[in-house]
Amino acid sequence: MPVDSHGHLDTRIEVSSHYSGALTDSLLAMYSTMALTVLALAILGLINGYLQRGIHIKATSLVKSMPHINASSVYAAEWKTEMKASVNSPIHTFWSIPDASKPYNSKEAFLFQFLPVNLMGFWFSFLWNNVDHFYWYNQPFAGMDNAAPAASTILLDYPSSMPILITCKAIANKHWRVALFSLLSLAASVPPIIASGIFIGIPDATGFTEHIQPVNFRASFSILGLYLLCTALARPTKAYRLPRNGIYTIGDLIQWCYASRIFDEELHGRPIFHVQDAKDERIQLLSRIHLAKRNYQFGLYLGIDGRRHLGFDIAERKNALGRLEYVDRIEAGPALYLRLDGRPWHFRRPRIVRRLE
Length: 357
Description:
Blueprint: H1 25-47, H2 50-53, E1 55-57, H3 71-88, H4 107-143, E2 148-149, H5 163-173, H6 176-186, H7 190-195, E3 199-203, E4 208-212, H8 214-234, H9 250-254, E5 266-267, E6 270-271, H10 282-292, E7 295-302, E8 308-314, E9 316-318, E10 324-326, E11 328-331, E12 335-336, E13 346-347, E14 351-353
């Protein structure tokens, strides 16, 4: 693969910011904008005093219809009577609320209950699941940014573990991004539940008032702010960026090593990655890889056809002449992808870092 005098690839391999999977600059920017908008509206509501007095709305389509009677005023009186009886009840608990089977909701009341839950659910579940999965699958390649043993590269397998175990395993391996985003993804189902209780509608003579529950509001505001700060950390560093899309199938994995001599590597005259006996179990195969004590690296490796290929291979090996061959490291260049056509606003070609003997 040709390079210029500065060690840059002549071909525009988009190693810099073309992230695997759906984790792109445009996606992170869109979700950050949504979160900032919600936080700005919440702050505006605090300034205008809506947290204390609620939001009064004139109902346009009461579900309960009572001929010749003001339905909302009658139900308001019923609601106050039931609430007073509930509070004075000797078995009063948090769940002692007026009978919900008596509808007072209108279209507007439905929106107040529907929008917070769905916005929070959409923002948290879709984005943070993508972030979590991205770091699961790309951590082995990030470990191969420099030569590293098999335990932290090719044998690393986060997707096959339970979510809470992934967090614990990542902390033990000091993979802080995997640990952080696995924990955030695991907790992402909680904010929509909290958001569902922000608004409680109380009917009155002219419609109803959506009262804002301070505890739910402050909890949702704080959680949304925390996740927004973590969105800045979700943008992958250079070590996590790959030229092609996700590593989700065996085919995606093979494209990075199909021409390497990794499967021809031997230990005591026997191939490391080959099954030696029909009765061999997984522990025996893994032990052979660990005992070989090889390091693996992602970059430009010398393939079985004598040409350089982009992928991963054993970091160093001796050729037929007894000289050491190395995998040339790829250093991604900076780029920013925010255009709808997928082209970068700013792009610098990746650089080849050759290892000297």
